[in-house]
Amino acid sequence: MLLAGDIGGTKSILALYPDDGDARTPLIQQRYPSRDFSSLTRLLDAFLAEHDAIIDAACLAVAGPVVAGKAEATNLSWVVTEQGLRARLGDIPVRLVNDLQATAYAIPALTPDDLHTLHSGEPEPQGALAVIAPGTGLGEAYLVWDGGAYRAYASEGGHTDFAPRNELEIALLRFLMRRMDHVSYERVCSGVGIPNLYAFLKDSGYAPEPPWLTQQLLQADDPTPVIVTAALKHAPPCPLCAAALDLFIAILGAEAGNLALKALSTGGVYVAGGIPPRILDALSHGPFMQNFIRKGRFADRLVRMPVHVVLNPNTALIGAARYGFDLLRGMISS
Questions:
Q1: Of 134, 93, 108, which is closest to residue 1 (Cα–Cα)?
Q2: What is the model's pTM?
Q3: Has residue 334 been placed in a domain?
């Protein structure tokens, strides 16, 4: 039996697969609120208490950098090690991977039904692929062709310096620099970033905050869904929330273009994570593609790159399972 997991800052998904199965069809899959547990070991204890199984290999995707078998979850206080997992699961092959590396590992296995195309472009066969994923945080990864298959690589590109491109974004940077030591793309382009955009626009006097919204924000544990809902589903839309979402989409498009240039992703760009499927219409008709392509002398190259939104919410889990099957079958050393 293979144990695979997608361990995120907001939610964690654990699943069991038969050793002769495939990554898209777990026998058992269960979702947990990550913050209900003090550690990954406690989460595993809860899962395995409900689903008794003999585990032969495990691969867990963690939202944070993985170095020498150790992961520190970026938006959780968890420290996870392969050694600790082996102690809990027995002397079996165990691998920790970055959650965006797992997401990237799943990209070649996705079907057309898993994707929504924002821009068809002109993909080059076996060209590099880029993955950008705004969820609780902002993840980035890329894939390169090694002559026989795509290999996925993690990065921490979401924590690079935010680079404003116009007067509004320069004002945003100044606003945030007064409030934090380092303004990264994650601070303005993720679930934790959207409230920062909202606070900036509210502080700048862009529009007044409606009393009904003030009440909802006061009652919310997480302001991001409130802001997004008020921008897209409230009738009429809240101007302040709509402006915050437009700014988010513009910055996401620009950073996706930055990543596409750095990886030279002539095979395509994949926009994954929890937020994009929820704002699909706004991504399709908003400023995303305009800002993706606007790269001066390289605009012609960007316009040839396909851009897809990943709709499958289990993409990181699929990637972790694919990696785990390779581990189980000896295709990757343990």
A1: 93
A2: 0.91
A3: no
Is 333 part of a structural domain of the chain? no
Q: How many CA atoms lie within 13 A of 68 on its CB side?
A: 0
Which of 7, 78, 14 minimizes the C-alpha distance to 51? 14
Quick check: 137 pLDDT over 60? yes
253 in any annotated domain: yes
Return the pLDDT at 316: 94
Statement to judge: residues 128 and 164 lie in one domain? yes
What is the predicted pLDDT for the residue at 110?
A: 95
Residue 36 CA to residue 51 CA, distance in Å, equals 19
Same domain membership, residue 266 and residue 178: yes
Q: What is the pLDDT of residues 10-29, one digit of tens each?
A: 889 999 999 888 899 999 99
| Domain count along the chain | 2
Phi-psi sector, 264: left (phi>0), alpha (psi -120 to 50), beta = left
Q: Which domain holds residue 39?
A: 2-104+314-328
